Sequence to fold (719 residues):
Amino acid sequence: MAEEFNTDGMLDMYLFENGQLLEQLQETVLEQKDADCFDEDSINEIFRTMHTIKGSSGIMMFDNITAVSHKLEDVFYFLRESHPEHVPHVELVEHVLEVEDFISNEMEKIRNGDPADGDSSDIIADLNQFLEKIKNGAAEEGAEPIPENVHEEPKQFYIAPVATSASRFYKIYITFFPETEMANVHAYKVVYSLKELAEDLLYSPEDIISDETSSEVILQEGFRMLLQAQCTEEDIRKVVTEGYDIKQVDIYECKAEEFLQGFDFGSQPASVQIDLESSVEEIEARKEASDEATVKKEKKPEKPKMAPGDFVIKSKEPGKQKKLAKDKKSEKASFISVDVRKMDQLMELIGELVISESVVLQNPDLKVPGLNLANFNKAAAQLSKISTDLQDVIMSMRMVPLTNTFQKMNRIVFDVSRKLGKDIEFVMVGEHTEVDKNIIEHISDPLMHIVRNAVDHGIETNEERLDSGKPDKGKVTLSAKTEAGKVWISVEDNGKGLDRNKIMDKARRLGMLDDGKPEEAYTDKEVFQFITLPGFSTNEQVTEYSGRGVGMDVVVQNLQAVGGTLDIESTPGIGSIMSLKIPLTLAIIDGIVLETGNSAFVMEMSAIKEFIRVKEDMMIHEPNGDEYIMIRGECLPVIRLGEWYGLKDYKQTIEDGIMLIIAVEDKSVAIFIDNLIGEQEIVVKPIPSYIKKVKGLSGCTQLGDGSIALILDPIGFIE
Fold:
């Protein structure tokens, strides 16, 4: 049967669920990478994860993923059952991460429409060797051998019933969460998992693969199974557990006669009603053994068992939800997976709604004298409130925590430190900080480069740290926090720090220093910014991780693409801090609309420090044409926006316009404009690609009167 069904409809669900399982697997492993061994809960979790991936990959006929996941499952099956001591923990962590990498790469091939053709033979051979090593160690300690974790290909699931005196019979009822997608596939995974225990296995609905409508039946009426096996109820629950998709598992042991009666399916819409407090009789021992001596043994009190008719489908009472009578469990939080493209489309529609709202509320027809707009203003206020609430909800849907991104950095630190032979501790702070999904996609690469540099450049070797009297273990701290509509992500290391003299020497050789400016006039921050320029690297030897002069320039370019900046602080011998400052979202911002000449511009409100009216005697004019202004003892450079962009008809006299003070980190600049129009929510639109990139512009938007305004980029004026 497994060879006949079409798997196309299941592929998205397979990739989504296994992707989540692999993320959880990596998080579990990295959390305990520095421990002496995995705890029991982690061993069970990793075993279940591999068991699930093995089953779903077997269904989808990805044989290489099935084989490698089954082999890792073998390892954790042995660890779970035998509890061996002196297991090489770091080696085991590397094996698990190697398997996770292999499966992730194969899933990426599948996602791109390519065949999953990776060769897993080397990984399986390494796992076999590792398994033999820990088995031999357990044998030397005198541990009893455990049965093998045997895997059979899923060819057929109905096995001829050959009952023995050791056989036991169970009726199993599984309830899935109402929001579970493709419940028939999940039911098939349960069947596939139980097959290894089963002597005989029947289930209803029967056509769970060939008939997609069986998914609705399973959600409404549950999934029923009849199992004959030589195992206990506890053994079954180890394989079939409540969790991600399964809401409840009910297992009832019965006699062979009841088992052979099968299921009595009625013709009406039905639900399983099991009334344990009604006329259900207590049945005798679970199995009457042929040996009379077993009857004489003291029997423990058993829970009420089902009478033969209790598993019959009964008509559902009108208006009542289908459920087991004994289901008292709390409801699971409801989640639904949505295509990111649909989320982007919804965000675009919200943006258009904001623009349309501005068009309506700022319509020139409303300015006609004598109009009574009391009712209109009330309706407009209600509309504005609803649209604002709608924006907040949509924005919250797009916000995702940095946890997965931070975990990837944890993996990078582990891999690179192992290859470089450095003992490094990795600490995460504020990993639950939420950021727009598009922002996360832009910062993943920059963050990876910075973390690699911290491990490669920043942290010294173990011998160097010992010679300098530092703690044996290096430390890399990745932290995140939100502040004033921005998110700060910092990578801090306790390494050797940046060498100012070395950076200046390299900058001098490359001709990066300004003519006429003495080297002593450069601040530390200005010197450290040299390492972000293309082709600049202080590492003389090219390695796998650094020395090619690329990396930090990519960091800055990617950050600037999302309106972010990079700040570098370093103390020789103490360490360095690389801080990324990025906006929480790129979609809708609070902005100030301003005017210069006949053109409208928008500046993000968070970048504006203050507005001031100035007098000519506050200005300082340099012979080369540069202008400065003294404000409360601080001298700021002045940029005339009209002159900057070559506009016409802008105000020339300082006292006729307004000075806009903008600040980015510790740098400030004064921008001279003609007028302030007002505050407005701005929908950010990218500047079309056919327009040449202009310094100081980051996008455009549509105003309420239908005109286009350019969005100013404060970083472009300060650099």
Q: What stands out?
A: Residues 374-398 form the longest helix (25 residues). The two ends are 66 Å apart (CA to CA). The CA atoms of residues 186 and 428 lie 35 Å apart. The chain is about 35% helix and 20% strand.
